[in-house]
Amino acid sequence: MNIIARGLAFLQYLVSLSQRTAWDWRRCPHCGSTTTCKWGHYTRQPWFLTGRCEVPVQRHRCHACRKTYSEQSAVLIRGSWYAREVHRSAIDHWQHMGTSLRRTAEVLRSWLGHQERWLAWRPLDCENGAHCYLAASTVHRWLDGAGKTAQAGVDGQLAGIAHTQAVGTDGLWTKLKGQAQRVVLLVVDSVSGLIYPPVVAKGEGSAGPWQRLFARAKQAGLDVDALRGVTSDGAPGLFAYLRRSLAWVQHQRCVWHLWRKPGL
Known about the structure:
By secondary structure, this protein is an alpha+beta fold. The chain contains 9 helices and 10 strands. It has helices at residues 3-18, 22-25, 84-97, 101-113, 117-121, 136-152, 207-219, 236-245, 255-260, and strands spanning 36-44, 47-48, 51-52, 55-62, 68-70, 166-175, 181-189, 199-201, 229-232, 250-253.
């Protein structure tokens, strides 16, 4: 099962869990018996994106196997003070925005508890009673757990997924110790944003460093033969490499780089 099928299966699981009726919860998850009864309840107080809420959780007891179980929710995560939406927004914020764990926790903490930076956004508001204590270490634990889950399912996660036909390339210049300058060359999937392994070179004016970059990307899984488009700046070395080795690929100049040079 590839990564897309796993995502769809997980989404379907959440949908089916949210659509379960009171009769469905009467069936014991341990033995399958329906001779069950309600066995008290307890209250959880998780944080949602809209604030902290009280959520009652019904418990049941099975007469056949004499085991107890609790009703599950698609929006809650067992053992967590934060709802599923907070977990997902924290991971997405850290990955998509490119911020640090501390800033991710600070923004979400301000949003959930209407505190800290929220009072800078809305200075006429007052702090509410509940105070959120989301920390960077908590976000790190969520990311670590998501990474371990993804690493456990690496085998077959790209099976049957079509390769991209458009990539973007660029170079980042940096100054090293001893006034030495190097450029980090990158090739990025224009659709998914996947960054292939970079290459460090002395310059980007020749075709050699670009050839090494695409060779390394090919080793990492890029189907160079299926490539149809490359977007980049005006690096002459890339032009030379494309004409020599990837003549069938259409090259497009990056609009952002053209805007930086209005004389072109």
